[in-house]
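Re: the multi-chain job from yesterday

Posting the exact lines I submitted so nobody has to dig through the queue logs.
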Amino acid sequence: VSAGATLFGLDRRLVPLAGTLLLFVAMVIFGALSYRSFLAPQVFLNLFIDNAFLLIVAVGMTFVILTGGIDLSVGSLLALTTMVTASLVEKAHWDPWLVIPLVLAMGTVFGAVQGFLIHRYRLQPFIVTLAGMFVARGFCYLIDTESIPVTHPLFQQLAYARLGAGRVAISSGALIAMVTAVAAVWLAHSTRFGRTVYAIGGSAKSAALMGLPVGATLTRVYAFSGFCAALAGLTMTVYMLSGYSLHAMGLELDAIAAVVIGGTLLTGGVGYVAGTVVGVLILGIIQTLVIFNGTLSSWWTRIVVGILLFVFCVSQKFIENRAPRRDENRAPGRAK
Amino acid sequence: MSFLKHSLFWPCVTLVLLLALNAIMNPGFLAIAWRDGHLYGNLIDILNRAAPLALVSAGMTLVIAARGLDISVGAVVAIAAATAAIVIGASSNLGLAIAAALAVSLLCGVWNGALVVGVGMQPIIATLILMVAGRGVAQLITGGQILTVYYAPYDFIGNGFLLGLPFAAVLAGAVIALLHLLLNVTPLGLFIRAIGVNPVAARIAGVRAKPITLSLYAFCGLMAGVAGLIISSNVKSADANNAGQLLELDAILAVTLGGTALTGGRFSLAGTVLGALIIQTLTSTIYSLGVPPEVNLVFKAALIFIVMLLQSPEFRASLRRLATRTEST
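And the result, structure tokens for all chains:
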């Protein structure tokens, strides 16, 4: 997908993002026409409040997918973070200000180890993070199979804290998610690290030939994804006020769906963190529409997400096929 | 020491070690008795419980051998189970229920194959779509309920016995034996390997890669459907949320343990069957050791890591370097 190539007069790289934005606007219009209170500002802000952890995870996942990889361990790692936090704070009575940096470091190291294995031993990201998923979920169960309620005053305060004026407000989790997204946009577009990530996604071989630190960057990308999962875990601990080994089951799929719907190409190299934010909002608005409808059952959310994934993947293929071939490595026969 | 190099050597050793560990911990473990007109014992139980996994893994082996992947099998199990349960509830017709469930699962497989072959999507993404939507579809079929099947003949599939052996195990054995014949008597096995080694070269050499790949996904879906029938019959109910949960991961693990390369081109059906038996034996071991069953996940992860690293040429190279260094010092 070379720069300068256009489709309908638009930079080709922006086409998926434009499609995502159009879809979001269309859904908002549909909601506004169907339900009177749909346009209330709080409905929009609730998208951030209820999907804060998904947004944080999806931001980390965006970087991984930009390199052409995938991280299936995030959901389990998130659950492990809630378990470790809850058990250390509630059962061992550790100071939360000690626990918070500790679990963030744990998530980062967990991701870094996965990234190291992927890069050093040329293992498939899919299978390494799959094993990581088993490890994290298994450790959750080892800590406790029951839910651990969190009653520490700090977490209680954070849970009920609202930032805003009058009836329009966001939670601490939503604020963290927004800050993470903004920081990630900066990381992707204004740092050497971000440019290396895009270069690896374009072609890891070329990136290495250009002298870019491919290995170190891959390790850091997975470390960042692990950090995001841990941060999301803290957010969820606050949101649910509990640690539970069954938290965030299948969240990795939602995160991947949000990234893809957000217009990031799964082959790597093309995509925007901003698109992922819109992708998460679209997943959120589907849920909101199902709730506003009242008669639709919750499983329709999954079916609609599946349909959207299908539509976006097919249209990605369409865009890809119309682009001039850049190098033979990207032909369909390329190893996964 | 040529048997050391045989691809089935390590899976066999793993299985024998696991069984030996069980036999030491529990002296009655290997005993097989004849009771109520059929064989009875831990080993028979393992055979019965490994049957659905072995079937799904067999389908997965072929898909992976042709450079693909199918992560939707768990969702297809749920869809097939839901279909069978709803048709039985409506008509009490066993044949119709089985036909409907198999038709739906075959359709799921064809859908996956069409996305991979026709649209040209990456296999993991193409099957991710059905993995996400599939459980929603299954819930749509069951109306969000856990359907209980009150129909005695249906129980036979998952709980019945044929010739003294569990019917599910006999069924799985027969299907896999037929598949083995098909792969070795006809050139199909060779074609699949060719596609896996180099799809472009295979096509140029005249292998009809597209229809073959499509039918492999269709077959994998069908196997998931059969597994869905066995699983739902075994527990006499269809649970759209939990039937076949994480089955795709177990299947991939079984395939990997059996020595099939995840990069395609090299596969072993017998190895996959051993892999499925290893996973089921591991589960039984953990139950009988009295360890919380949740620990199973950590063991499986450890297994994946070990197998994965042993398959990596880079890791083997660094091991070799380490070995020569210790020898020279």
